[in-house]
From TrEMBL:
Organism: Andreesenia angusta
Protein name in UniProt: Phage terminase, small subunit
């Protein structure tokens, strides 16, 4: 099975400057607006909404999220909440570690969590790559020689 495509900002693949700019422009247009990134009505409980808002708040500066990501973020929030609940249950009653249904549920929510992270480009490697890209962009903006050449 092929791996899902990642945003150009978090890709490790070597692309030409023109390819990167074209992909960034396309992704920006496809991402749409980012003005309505709120939990979907009736889909999340209060704890899941807190997780949703926490993720959105932490990623606001990266500008990788768009309104279309709301449902992936919601699924991610549900997965995190359920994984935490399962771990809490096991911590309270360690004999539950032997419960097959609980292990299967934990496995399902863990896989769902990692899948949603991959869909959103939220792995530690992706965030590190975004950090480097943002740093390079800032350095290029502040470089007086590049500023003169742009004029």
């Amino acid at each position: 099975m092929a791996r899902p495509s990642k945003p150009v900002a978090v890709m490790v693949k070597n692309l030409t400057k023109e390819e990167i700019e074209a992909r960034q422009e396309t992704e920006k247009n496809l991402r749409g607006q980012a003005d309505k990134i709120v939990p979907p009505r009736g889909m999340l409980n209060n704890n899941q909404k807190k997780i949703f808002n926490y993720i959105v708040g932490e990623l606001k500066a990266s500008e990788v999220l768009g309104n279309l990501d709301v449902y992936v973020l919601a699924k991610c929030s549900v997965s995190i909440d359920r994984m935490l609940d399962i771990e809490r249950q096991i911590n309270e009653r360690p004999n539950l570690m032997k419960d097959k249904d609980l292990r299967l549920a934990n496995d399902y929510y863990t896989k769902t969590f990692f899948r949603t992270c991959n869909e959103l480009g939220l792995s530690p490697q992706s965030r590190a790559k975004l950090g480097n890209i943002n740093l390079q962009a800032k350095q290029e903006q502040e470089d007086p020689l590049l500023e003169v050449l742009r004029k």
